[in-house]
Design brief:
Layout (H helix, E strand, L loop, with lengths): L2 E6 L6 H4 L4 E4 L2 E4 L2 E4 L6 H9 L6 E3 L3 H13 L4 E6 L7 H15 L4 E6 L4 H16 L4 H13 L1 E6 L4 H5 L5 H9 L3 E5 L6 E6 L2 H15 L3 E7 L5 H9 L7 E4 L2 H7 L4 E6 L4
Parallel strand pairs: 1-2, 1-6, 6-7, 11-12
Antiparallel strand pairs: 3-4, 3-5, 8-9, 8-13, 9-10, 11-13
Length: 282
């Protein structure tokens, strides 16, 4: 392809979704105490959630070192790409994009100013994944770097990501709320709903039960209709099929389903369930 596409592992794209698309995924790192794992390479999603449930200490995530991005950029260039577009999770919640920028500067310095664009998706998980899939399909169809960059900038503004947390335990482990507040939340079955549509984590609502939280998400989708590229993402949530069915009541198009990987799952906890979609361009 004339344009190589690079992203990071918070895109939560499965191998089947990437089949036929040449996308380089740079992994973040996951730490459980002194044990460190390379996302997607050394720890599977299922193993991550099992390990997290078995430990009191909250796992930590770390951005990829610039060298990882340099390798990905060079793989694209060595394969014949005339330009590279790197689409990363929101710079407001991770240092990953900063690492990619450093890598791009290093490669340009060595190779005489090659064309590498590092873009802030202002999104994460299924929202980022959708942008990456769209960019990769454009590249496969022969689109140039300018067109892909312009599209990502526009589409990121139209991308919305919402999720509901099934447990406050990870927030308690991370010291974000006191133990008493976590217990109170558990007793009241409070299910917070977060909005990551602006690139930062904002509280969207609170519901007393899981079912009401899912209903809130469905109603939000209904109010936003018509939407495009709807995706459901979940952290090993047992009710993901029920939620997909609820969304199908108000959306007649395809619904992509993906698992929330360790990068977001570390903070959201097991059972997180949400949706990402784009509103049509004006």
């Amino acid at each position: 392809m004339a344009v190589g596409i690079v992203t990071d592992s918070s895109c939560d794209l499965g191998d089947a979704e990437l089949d036929g698309l040449d996308v380089q995924i740079v992994p973040l790192f996951i730490r459980f105490g002194t044990d460190e794992f390379v996302d997607r390479e050394q720890i599977a999603v299922e193993d991550f959630y099992q390990r997290m449930a078995a430990t009191e200490e909250l796992p930590q995530t770390a951005a990829p070192p610039p060298g990882r991005f340099e390798q990905a950029f060079r793989r694209c260039l060595d394969a014949g790409s005339e330009a590279v577009v790197c689409i990363n999770l929101s710079a407001a919640i991770s240092a990953t994009m900063q690492s990619a920028v450093q890598a791009a500067d290093a490669v340009r310095a060595e190779d005489g100013g090659v064309d590498i664009r590092v873009l802030d998706s202002r999104s994460v998980t299924a929202g980022l994944g959708t942008l990456v899939l769209q960019a990769a399909r454009m590249a496969a169809d022969g689109a140039g770097a300018d067109d892909i960059e312009q599209f990502v900038a526009d589409a990121s503004e139209r991308t919305h990501v919402f999720g509901t947390l099934d447990t406050l335990e990870n927030l308690r482990k991370g010291g974000r709320i006191g133990g008493a507040q976590a217990l109170l939340g558990s007793m009241l079955s409070i299910k917070p709903i977060v909005d990551i549509s602006s690139g930062t984590v904002a509280e969207a609502a609170k519901q007393r039960t899981r079912r009401k939280a899912l209903g809130w998400l469905r109603d939000t989708l209904r109010a936003a209709a018509p939407v495009e590229h709807l995706a459901v993402m979940h952290g090993e949530a047992p009710d993901v099929d029920d939620f997909r069915g609820m969304l199908a009541e108000v959306h007649s198009g395809d619904i992509r389903v993906c698992k929330v990987g360790p990068v977001v799952g570390t903070h959201a906890g097991q059972g997180v369930l949400g949706m990402a979609y784009q509103v049509p361009a004006a």
